[in-house]
Amino acid sequence: MALALFKNPLTSGDCHGSSICDGKPTGRRRVFVQTEKGCVLGMELDRTDNAHTVKRRLHVALNFPIEETSLTFGDMVLKNDLSAVRNDSPLLLSRNFLHRSSSTPCLSPTGRDIQQKDQSGPIEILGNSNQFAKTKQLVKEIVKAMKNGVAPLPVNSGLGGAYYFRNIRGECIAIIKPTDEEPFAPNNPKGFVGKALGQPGLKRSVRVGETGYREVAAYLLDYDHFANVPATALVKITHSIFNVNDSMNGIVSQNKNPRSKIASFQQFIPHDFDASDYGTSCFPVSAVHRIGILDIRILNTDRHAGNLLVRRHDGVGQFGQAELIPIDHGLCLPENLEDPYFEWIHWPQASIPFSEDELEYISNLDPAHDVEMLRAELPMIRDACLRVLFLCTTFLKEAASYGLCLAEIGEMMSREFQKGVEEPSELEFLCMEARMVVAQEILSFTPISNTDEFQFDIDFEDAGSEFTVHPAPQVCFSEPPFHSSISCRNPLFKLEESTEEGEVESNHEKGLSCAPFPTAISMKNCCFGGSKHKQRQPSGAKLFGHKSANDPLSRSVSFVKLADMNEEDWGLFLDKFVELLGPAFARRKAATLGQKQRQRLGTSCKF
Fold this sequence. Notes:
Layout: E1 29-35, E2 40-45, H1 51-62, E3 69-73, E4 76-78, E5 89-95, H2 111-117, E6 123-125, H3 133-147, E7 153-154, E8 163-166, E9 172-178, H4 211-221, E10 232-239, E11 259-267, E12 273-274, H5 285-297, E13 308-313, E14 321-326, H6 356-364, H7 367-377, H8 383-402, H9 406-413, E15 416-418, E16 421-423, H10 426-444, E17 456-459, E18 466-469, E19 495-496, H11 501-506, E20 557-558, H12 567-594
Parallel strand pairs: 1-5
Antiparallel strand pairs: 1-2, 3-4, 3-5, 6-10, 7-8, 8-9, 9-11, 10-11, 12-13, 13-14, 15-16, 17-18, 19-20
Helix pairs in contact: 5-9, 7-8, 8-12, 10-12
């Protein structure tokens, strides 16, 4: 089974890919080192260089303090051996503890330091994928325009810093989003500041400074341009327009010297408007399905109408037809299972069965191949995100083969509110049951001294904090996990994550606990077939005034974690998860057929 191909443990010292795990230096490489405040320096590494060499060069060029700092590459903390670092990789240098004082500015390198220490060009693509051919062409056009004095334009909308870069004719051809100007990042130009790179961001399972990786991942996963994601790459780019704050309080520096940034680079697609300004009945069924398939695979938590661009085709014989372009995938692939947001879930197109071509595309998806591809192209992406990708792609493949439509799959992945309480999705309940079955099997071979209850600890965050689960004494899975007569409200694995300043600074999550959970599970049977996707404000909606990350945020909830399982448990979990899918899909189909059929499809939908 393909599931067995992705059963590696998630440890900070893992090497990814066969070419880097032999412990030998891989020769001369170019890397881009980014400080936690956003400063970037490109440098060449040879076989004799180590982590201390990198830190020393950064200190000389940027005057950045390197005492009590760690050099990280994705999940890995680099010591002396740099053999796991690939060419064109971004590294992050962060302090091991955060000072409460935030008055130290981000010191940019002088022109002399740049000439001596950073010989890279104005725009450098990080990676050598053959899918970056379009991006390379756009980079050439932009560099030519920059040399001829064509300046980029800042984007005023949104919460993070973004810039339109133009060609020599003044046409916008790319949008650049620096990682250190994301919401809550240290150099955010719109006042949303207060965190260092690598800390929890708008979504606590998406860290500050890592949304750019996810933008590129969504593009790379869009095989054959199936969902129409614009060409996207990660770049190191230097320009004076970029923002640098003088402190963590969001005070914009008046220094306009050229600054180097790590950023996502996405092709700008001319369009007429976004999906919120256009009637959804004019959207082609195939376009909605293809975008939905991608959103499910990557567990997109932010697919609102504002990031679905619409381009009309009103030529001869094409009146009223529209093309959809999905953008803004920075909040996909969270480190934990999250509540997704699918704008399309109530569109009539989502209730139409998949076509034969779409079913064939889904059937040919290989989650193990997806994981290995991202490890090769984006080695800095965290393994927890790859587990989410693997799980959601498996769920999609099994659901589509069982005959579920896009709307039904999306509903099973989406949470509900019951009397003001957020409930786990059906997908999360299935994961919880699979974990409990695995725990039962493991405990059946382990002597337990106390027959009343047992306790086991699970790491919650990379920083090492823990939460404790106390299952009920009797373990019984003889009954089906879904019963309509029993309430689906259950606090199992509900991790209420605090955002206290002290907890953020120590990077530890404290006070996380799981309430007792009866293992004769009563799963989310109360709204099978008739569940309604809750309506909410898109994350890109306007906010007023300046907001710091130290201000209270709404508490986020995580019901299921995947990263805390070791290799053996992860393999057992995947097997049990797949076993549970068939009965769950059968119950959903039965409940749907038992309901009064509702006409949801308008005659104006475009095929």
